[in-house]
């Protein structure tokens, strides 16, 4: 039985907030035609999309839908129902073809199943008896597995078993850890492009500072417009085309301060150079505007690309590491690499 709450909930699924009069009318339709609230709302959505261009429900629109859909169907069903008073004992089927023009009595038909459709039932086979000797499903655990005595024990080790880690003894042990499962981003190796670009920009800025300190260069220009005030520029080498990098397609992609703006490089005045896509460089040259071209042009005089990094001092301690990948057993041939 439909209710006002169900009707309102069904309308809200389509982002429709009907009035109380509309809900009363819908409830009356559900009771009169013995239909559910979901069916009524679906019928209204289809009706208003086809006839009213998606208008909101009103009492007048619901009455039109009732006359067109429900009352029409009810009259058709009533016309098809047979009359018990005038029914002839010789007529079994009341269905007549729409193309028939004469009301001829039909021949009584038997309710028995035709002999052509009688089938001999196939005797069912007991598969359990046929495969009794070949199929087995143990109802309990294997005896060897249940009697094991080395559960949660180290099966294989290599090297010194007693060492120190952060001034504390470390012995090979097995610990049950539950992290709650991997997240969706970790499962599909999802990587946010913004974070990746920020990481690349941070590495480029560190290299630019190291190159600038080595050659005693000034601070690269950080102006955001085309009126440049310095002849030193820094960034990454990129290609202007999809093919291989050549002297006509070399672009300099500036850092995040310039919002990744690119400048075309003219290398005609450079005697020797070796560049590759993604290389971080600091260039010195003359910046010129090109009103007929989309990208500005930089006539390069010098390219600075190499730098010296001071390696960290090596600690005097011996570095030891434990690598564990359970579950493993000593019987597996994959441990022979030790």
Characterization of this structure:
With 338 residues, this protein is an alpha+beta fold. The strands form two sheets. The chain has a five-stranded mixed beta barrel. Residues 84-102, 223-228 and 332-338 have low confidence and may be disordered. β4 (250-254) and β5 (262-266) form a beta hairpin. The chain has two domains: 4-80, Orthogonal Bundle (Helicase, Ruva Protein, domain 3), CATH 1.10.8; 150-338, Beta Barrel (OB fold (Dihydrolipoamide Acetyltransferase, E2P)), CATH 2.40.50.500. 28% of the residues lie in helices and 12% in strands. Residues 5-72 form the DNA polymerase alpha subunit B N-terminal domain. Residues 91-123 have a biased composition (Polar residues). Residues 71-123 are annotated as: Disordered. Keywords: Nucleus.
Q: Which word captures the global form? A: flat
* Count, helices: 8
In CATH, the topology of the largest domain is named OB fold (Dihydrolipoamide Acetyltransferase, E2P)
Rounded mean pLDDT is: 73
Fourth CATH level, the homologous superfamily of the largest domain: NigD-like N-terminal OB domain
Number of strands: 7
Low-confidence stretches: 84-102, 223-228, 332-338
Strand content: 5-15%
Please state the CA-atom Rg, rounded to the nearest Å: 42 Å
Biased composition (Polar residues): 91-123
Pfam families: OB_DPOA2 (PF22062), Pol_alpha_B_N (PF08418)
Main location: nucleus
Domain DNA polymerase alpha subunit B OB: 201-288
């Amino acid at each position: 039985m439909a209710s006002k709450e169900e009707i309102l909930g069904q309308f809200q699924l389509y982002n429709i907030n009907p009035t109380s009069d509309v809900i009363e009318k819908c409830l009356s339709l559900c009771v009169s035609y013995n239909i559910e609230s979901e069916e009524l709302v679906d019928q209204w959505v289809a009706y208003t999309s086809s006839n009213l261009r998606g208008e909101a429900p009103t009492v007048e629109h619901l009455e039109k839908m009732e006359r067109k859909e429900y009352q029409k169907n009810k009259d058709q069903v009533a016309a098809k129902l047979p009359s018990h008073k005038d029914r002839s004992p010789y007529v079994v089927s009341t269905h007549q073809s729409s193309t028939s023009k004469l009301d001829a009595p039909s021949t009584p038909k038997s309710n028995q199943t035709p002999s052509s459709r009688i089938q001999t039932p196939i005797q069912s086979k007991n598969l359990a008896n046929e495969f009794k000797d070949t199929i087995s499903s143990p109802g309990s655990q294997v005896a060897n597995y249940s009697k094991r005595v080395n559960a949660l024990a180290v099966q294989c080790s290599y090297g010194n078993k007693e060492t120190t880690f952060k001034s504390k003894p470390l012995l090979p042990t097995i610990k049950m850890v539950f992290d709650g499962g991997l997240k969706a981003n970790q499962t599909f190796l999802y990587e946010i492009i913004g974070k990746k670009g920020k990481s690349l920009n941070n590495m480029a800025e560190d290299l630019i500072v190291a190159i600038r300190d080595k050659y005693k260069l000034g601070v690269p220009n950080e102006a955001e417009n085309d009126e440049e005030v310095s002849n030193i520029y820094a960034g990454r080498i990129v290609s202007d085309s999809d093919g291989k990098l050549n002297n006509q397609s070399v672009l300099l992609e500036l850092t995040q301060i310039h919002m990744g703006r690119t400048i075309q490089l003219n290398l005609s005045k450079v005697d020797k150079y070796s560049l590759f896509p993604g290389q971080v460089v600091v260039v010195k040259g003359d910046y010129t505007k090109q009103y007929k071209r989309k990208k500005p042009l930089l006539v390069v005089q010098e390219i600075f690309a190499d730098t010296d990094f001071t390696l960290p001092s090596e600690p005097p301690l011996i570095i030891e590491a434990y690598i564990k990948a359970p579950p493993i057993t000593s019987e597996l041939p994959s441990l022979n690499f030790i």
